[in-house]
Every structure is written in structure tokens, then in C-alpha cells.
Amino acid sequence: MDSSTLMYSLDLVCGNGLTLSTEQKAALHTSLLILKRNYKFNRVLFWGKILGIKKDYFIAQGVGEDEMRDRKCLYSFNCMDWHLLPLATEALTAEVAVAARGRFMGEPSHEYQHTVIRHQGEGDNAVEEEVMVKVSEEKRLAVTVFTINNEVAVVPRGAYIKSPNGIVQTNRSFEGLNPTEAGKLNNYLHFSEPKNLKKKSILELADLNPSIDFLDPLIDDIPKGSWSLQFEHGSRVCVIRSLLWFGLTFFHVPVTSQHGYIYIGDGLKNMDLPFMM
After folding, report:
1. What is the pLDDT of residues 22-36, one digit of tens each?
2. Where are the beta strands (DSSP E) in the chain?
């Protein structure tokens, strides 16, 4: 959620019982403005909080020219001092998937270790070698934030436009979905590189507007039933929650441009939930 509307937005997503203290809100309101100036970001978003055993990680995102691809993630323990997270590459993601297990400790220098057996050579010359894979919690944090963004970051249809040169920016003419549109899951999109859009037929693509329909809609997600949509605050606010990543909460105020999402959870994906098909 945008740092400029942080105080207002946090009150709209507190229905799950997780929120921030008054001191944390005040510290974020000040430090995110300083963060924007120091790093020369166009916008700064408060991404959320990942719960740890010893300490919790507060996550912020700085946005550049391209709203979707030009983003940097930072973390803090006290909502004042921010540290840049490393880039989550494919190699790093593979290492984290092998080595990291359990809850976050709350120590960036903590190392996760796991021994894997790798085969070298072929035929009679084949040998087995034990290799120790080590990964720090800071790198695990970077991969977790990237994965959550990639799988469940949500925006309303029309809130962002894609220019002819491929840059994604906010749609200044977007005034929000009307109450009828806000209640339909197909009017909400994944804010990440599309995966299913290229699989659509020519007839399906003919009904889409390339400038705003360049993302995958939530309605196409598998398994079905992995999203919860409901109206709160006297039916004034549409709230969508992910049932794959418990803690991801998106809100949209119909007939306004106000929207955003926040993650407050332990950074573990729920894989055992029985879904309705």
C-alpha cells in the first residue's frame, strides 16, 4: 500500500486481526518519506510484515519508472532503519527451496543448511558426493517476498496501463471499479508477468484491451477457490484474501482509485488446504 495513504489504508485491512501498533505506524509514516527521498524512488509502498521467532521483518518496496519491473525491496526491524534485500535470482530461489525449512528466525545472518547427494560421472565411474547447501535468512527473505509478489500480488482491472514501449504505469484516469464490478473476481489481476495470457485463443484475445488486459485474472487460478472475496466496512470496501498465502490481504474501495495489498504472516505457503472445485 502507498506510503502516502498508509494511515488510512491500514484500517481497511485489519479485519484479519493483524495490524501495526500506533508507534509502528508513526515510525513508518516518517521513515518511508525519508526512504523515498534518499533512494530517489517515484513511490514507496509498505509491503507488509513477515513474522519471526525473535524479531519481525517489516518490508517496503521502492518503485521506479516501471511499476511492475522496476522495484526494490528493503527490510527493517524497527520501521526506521532500512536495509536493501538482494535480488531473487533463479539460482538463489533453487538454493532456498532446498535448504530453508520452518519459520523465520528474525536474524538476517542465520544460516540454513541442508546436505544433498549429487551424482558425478557415468557408468562404472559414477560416484556420489555429499554437498552442503547453505543459505542465509536474508536471502530466504528476498526469495519469499519475490515469490509472494509473483503468486498473489493483486491489482484491480484498469488501475495500470501498459505503454507501447512496454512500460507499466499507474492509470491516472482510473477512478475505481463500480460496486457491481468490484464483486466479481475476474476484475482483479495478478500484478506479475502473465503466464496464462499467451495460452488464450485468438477469439478470447479479441475481447481484451491490450493497454489494460496485459495481466492474468484471478478467476483463472488453479486450484479453484484459492481466493476469498467479501465486502467489509458496511459494504464500502472490497477485501480479497489469498488462501494459498495466509496473510495476503488486498482491498479496493469501489468508485475511488484507492486500492492496495499487504502481507502479514509467517512467510509459509499453505499447501494442505482442501479447496472447493
Report:
1. 899 899 989 999 999
2. 43-50, 57-63, 71-76, 83-84, 111-120, 127-136, 154-156, 160-162, 168-170, 188-190, 227-232, 237-242, 248-252, 259-265
